[in-house]
Amino acid sequence: MKLGEGPIEENALFRAMIECMRDQVITVHDTCDGGRIVYANEPACRHFGVDLDTLLTWRPLDFDPNFDAARVQGLIGEQDGTVASCYFESVHRVSTGEVIPVEVALSPFDLHGRRLAMCLVRDLRPRLEAENHLKEMERLKAERESMSRLSRFAQCAPGFMYSVERQSDGRVAMTYASKGVEDVLGLGVQSVLDDIGRIYALILPEDLEQMRKRKEASRLAMAPFLSEYRIRHPRKGMRWLEARSVPERLADGTTLWHGFIVDITERKRTEETLRFIAQRGWAAEGGEFFPSVARYLGQTLGTDYVVIDRLTQDPAIAETVALYARGEIAPNLRYGLSGTPCENVMGRTLCCYARGVQQLFSEDNMLRDMGVESYAGIPLWDSAGAPIGLIAVMDGKPMGDTDLVTALLQIVAARVAGALERERSEYRLKTREQEFRSLVEHSPDTVARYDGQCRRIYANPRLVEESGVPVSEMLDKTPAEFPGGKSACAYQDKIREVLETGRQEDFELTWKTARGEDIVSHIRLTPERDADGEIRQVLAVGRDITEIDAYRRQIQHMAFFDSLTGLPNRELLNSRIKEVLADSAVSGRRLALMMLDMDRFKEVNDTLGHGVGDKLLEQAASRLTDAVRCDDVVARLGGDEFAVLLPDIRNGADLNSLAGRILGALAEPFQIEGRELFASASIGIALYPGDCIDIDTLFRCADSAMYYAKKQGRNNFQFYIADLTERASERMLIESALRKAQERNELELYFQPQVDLATGRVVGAEALLRWNRDGERVVLPGKFIHVAEETGVIVSIGEWALGEACRAAVSWNRGREKPVRVAVNLSTRQFILNDLAGTVVRILAETGCRPEWLELEITESLLLEDSGEITETLDAFNAMGVSISIDDFGTGYSSLSYLHRFPVRRLKIDRSFVHGLPSDRRKTALIKAMIAMAHALKLEVVGEGVETVEQGAYLQAHGCRLMQGFLCGKPTPRAQFEALLLAEKP
After folding, report:
1. 718: phi then psi, degrees, rounded to nearest 5
2. Nearest to 596 by CA among 640, 653, 648
3. Rounded to an integer, what is the distance from CA 665 to the centroid of its chain?
4. How far is CA 465 from CA 459, 498, 540, 904, in A?
5. How many whole angstroms separate alpha carbon 889 and alpha carbon 944?
6. N or C: which end of the chain has fewer CB within 10 A?
7. How far apart, in whole angstroms, are the C-alpha atoms of residue 801 and residue 646?
């Protein structure tokens, strides 16, 4: 199209250039005519959906709804030609009515005296679609990462996590179960996924129907599901379980429950015992009380025998008041205490013999006749501290849970002792009424009598003493008047109830003594009748059960406080954080969370024992509490990990000062069992709302900062920064790429020769892993092995490497007179997550590799685990003829103990000791000691990292036969290593 006056050649050239841009929307506008289009190429016509003649009549106001006259004028410039090049985003309304997002590049130019503007338009839809796609991919990736973390949590959580699906047609199936199902139910994961009926078959019928009703109610109301029920465990017998889950309704009518199941047997047994003692015990006292206690203990603990004895007038003779024998209450009997385990218990202390009790008390014929293998007994004391009897449980098999047995005996003992003493007292009262006054006056129990108006008409000296007021001030007063208080008013109501009903009642009264001590008394209220049978008075006899009440409170305390340090635990800390977050939403105050981890605490446990480690944690907890402010909350999260909640932070200086004070407090020496220990900590700090907006993110940010502090050298504090998240993302990228590395054949084994120092011949090789990431750059193990071990990918990678190494050994040793041995490194994770011995057997069979051609390298830290499974696996390797060597020997906790106990054949002295030979005297002494120790244990020695002739000569001179290092050869691909073997003389 002709744009103006001028040479034809220039116009033709201009048009040709424009038309060549086939995919670019180009328009030329007359700046002097309101931006009217004076030229448009063919893509422009397709873009707007009109023909060229129509398009040449349009101005920006005709197709751009974002423009008005003022903006058009400002964009194209005044008539004086002040328009400049620019880029902007807008939208175009095309002939179909569709609004298309575009990017416009506007450039002015002059043509034969006319001021024109050329617009290059790009459709932004493809770019926006790509951006949206990228955001969706990032969201999906975050979801996968979240699921991965949840899966790891599920494997470590107590009990097991599950998902149950109920379809619209009523069919029920378990769609997910964590590995904990094997311990809780005694069933395999796949078996419950295949058939949920296997779980229902374990549940007691009387509990199954109730559980199903609650599940149906949860489905109908979409309310959380909670149920406690009993099962018959294949190995553990009857167990109590607690199931909790939250329902979710899907669009197709399916209901999903996501939750967890935990074993609460120990809790239920303790609760049942306390309930039995608190509710049934006194009501059943007398002829039925002791047999009921004996039967309860026998059935609860699953033991063959339970005896409750009392001493006779002859202290060498005891008589049973209850004898439970193999499910039945047997007749009572008398027996001599001499030479029996009961003699050890009576009047002394709790005794427990988990096994072999017959051998310990060979003179006790009764033990032999009853077939008793295990015994536990506890003495019974009266209120004056004198022995009056004992409780003992006996069984024909070794005792499993001794802690549970002794705990229940201790709980029951006080009440049985009280009942035994009360029975004795009542007997004496019946036979010698004249002694009643003396007994009451000297009773360690409190005794009172109340009339028909609940007024106190008698109080014994013990009650007067503990009340701390003259008896005259106590008499003719109701409990509400003295001692007064909420508990006393409830006590008075209970007295009135006894007067009205004539039934004995029990009551627990909490009151304060004259010494200011809080006492919990268990009071037996007994109605007293006159000659006509009318109730006139109530006798109240109280027994101090403060210790039992403290035990109950201890159970409550254990739920929210750490048993070792007494600090709040994670649950109580979470609750406190929720309270502070709710308050900060109103007050606008900032809070901070510190995560604190003791540096190298495992070394203390490993070297000095867990007892010293526990005392170190106790002292560290005390110092932390002293270092923080009064409103701050210090909690122990588990192990050597602590947290500090700071509910009111005004500026960063507060945090710097407090963190520094904590590090300073921990830096002071600890005095433990005559030792002076030094400790430090790494602290991570996260702020709310600066770093996060919820509790989970707050913990995660503080945790990330804490691990960053460890990487910075420990013994410092670090604030959370977004860069930590980016580093975590980089680690996840490595994990993702590593999982695909095997599929893409990116992994490769390099081999470093091991040489006989005497002959210079290659006798073996160590297989070393390399990652050809993206097919270009070689990544060394130090960059990715830790990720592989943390994620478990090391199991599949290790199996692949083992197979490749065995195939290489078969190739090298085909027709070779003196075989070459190949060494492969094993990770601790391979022992934990895999049937490693079975894998090695299978690979040897598949590749045809002989066991003596293979050597498996492990680290010293693996042997320090002292695990039965690890020992069995190493013994299996040794039995099949595979050599085991200790890699990097000397860098861990070297010990003659594990070298003697495990089937190790070879030690590889770490390169850090070889470096500096022979000039470094300290290293030469260590090298000689290691070689001498190995020779004493008949172990072969390999020197690693040998780089000089002098180092090799020194090792050979002191008895080291093999070496490995750059002096022999660097790690090379398999083909180059094979060339090295072929180059050797036969």
Report:
1. -135, 140
2. 640
3. 28
4. 10, 26, 16, 73
5. 10
6. C
7. 50
Q: Which helix (H) or strand (E) holds 191?
A: helix 189-194
Q: Report whether 741 contacts 796 (CB < 8 A).
A: no
Query: What CA–CA distance (Å, rounded) separates 377 from 519?
Result: 28
Residue 168: CB partners within 8 Å, gap ≥ 6? 252, 253, 254
**Burial level of 706, CB count in 10 A (0-12/13-18/19+)?**
buried
The string of pLDDT tens digits covering residues 841-886 is 999 999 999 999 999 988 877 766 556 778 888 888 889 889 999 8
Buried residues in 408-440 as b, exposed as e (16+ CB within 10 A)? bbebbbbbbbbbbbbbebeeeeeeeeeeeeeeb
Please list the residues that pair with 114 across neighbouring strands. 111
Nearest Cα neighbor of 185 from 245, 241, 256, 259 is 241
DSSP letter at 293? H
Exposed / middle / buried, residue 671 (Cβ in 10 Å: 0-12, 13-18, 19+) = exposed
Checking DSSP bridges between strand 940-943 and strand 505-512, what pairing results, if any? unpaired
| Two structure tokens written together for 573 | 């800390």
- Read off the pTM: 0.36
**Residue 414 to residue 5: CA distance in whole angstroms:** 118
pLDDT tens for residues 383-411? 888 888 899 999 999 987 787 788 888 88
CA-to-CA distance for 682 and 714, rounded, in angstroms? 5
Neighbours of 333 (CB within 10 A): 12
Joined together, the tokens standing for residue 550 give: 């403290």
Enumerate long-range contacts of 488-496, CB under 8 Å, 24 or more apart.
491/523, 492/454, 494/525, 495/450, 495/454, 495/525, 495/538, 495/540, 496/454
Q: Give φ, ψ of 29 to 5 degrees.
A: -115, 145
Give the torsion through C-alpha atoms of 561, 562, 567, 573, to 10 deg: -60
pLDDT, position 82: 55
Contact 884, 877 (CB under 8 A): yes
